């Protein structure tokens, strides 16, 4: 589903729907607070949660991958535990990128598993226990900030710098899983993702609200050797905010003949892909998608669709490095 437009209204000027739904938001927030307050399983190794206060896509997956790579470079055995949103397997099960598919384990765990051992577990504590037994030095929780089944040693909140915290209200009155202040009380840092203009916008709107250290980062496309300049493309994406992917392609010089925004985690059926292929042929365009969508492609289309990979980049990791050092992960 798409976010209602009133979720992005300025916090100072709530619309009618925001005001009507705010009491329901208070109920949602109280339920979230009860889940988060549970005293869960305490792991024998450090557990770092990469979560968000917003519902929907903020950039958690590239943040998990970047953090995992940073720890691997330090010689650490990094395991990721995910709930496996969209997957059918209850787990706990270690993701095998060769034998599992996105329908079984979810697209995000399947992508992350290409970088580091990844576990899917509807009960995150069970996944953490198995990761410990399998030799993990450190465990990254992909999401789960509002879930108290596992005790966290550090929590990094990821936020889209341009969208910020929307209208600052809790679902259904706004885009938040819990009030900002309550969430940040359990956070060690905020990772805001976006270009310079988006970072300035975030600072202008939320600098007084964010009471923890902040890391400014952006998603940069990898150089794959594919020449995007003036390349006619039919782009499709089923991520939290597809327009960011389309903007990246335009920034690389690609000529978007068509941009198909799909729902987040939407299945890429043969029927859908056949339609897109017919449209691409009619437009003389190359089909292109994101890494996260690519793992959901039917086998018959994996050689027909170009993938644009992106990685999280930051000029200053000192805030995160300092927290890792506190956990003995330097």
Automatic annotation (TrEMBL):
Lineage: superkingdom: Bacteria
Recorded GO MF terms: ATP binding; lipid-A 4'-kinase activity
UniProt keyword annotation of Kinase present: yes
Nucleotide-binding keyword on record: yes
Keyword line: ATP-binding, Kinase, Lipid A biosynthesis, Lipid biosynthesis, Lipid metabolism, Nucleotide-binding, Transferase
Pathway participation: Glycolipid biosynthesis; lipid IV(A) biosynthesis; lipid IV(A) from (3R)-3-hydroxytetradecanoyl-[acyl-carrier-protein] and UDP-N-acetyl-alpha-D-glucosamine: step 6/6
Binding sites annotated in the UniProt record for ATP: 54-61
Membership in a protein family: Belongs to the LpxK family.
Role: Transfers the gamma-phosphate of ATP to the 4'-position of a tetraacyldisaccharide 1-phosphate intermediate (termed DS-1-P) to form tetraacyldisaccharide 1,4'-bis-phosphate (lipid IVA).
Protein name as it appears in the record: Tetraacyldisaccharide 4'-kinase
Upper taxonomic lineage: Bacteria, Pseudomonadati, Pseudomonadota, Alphaproteobacteria, Rhodobacterales
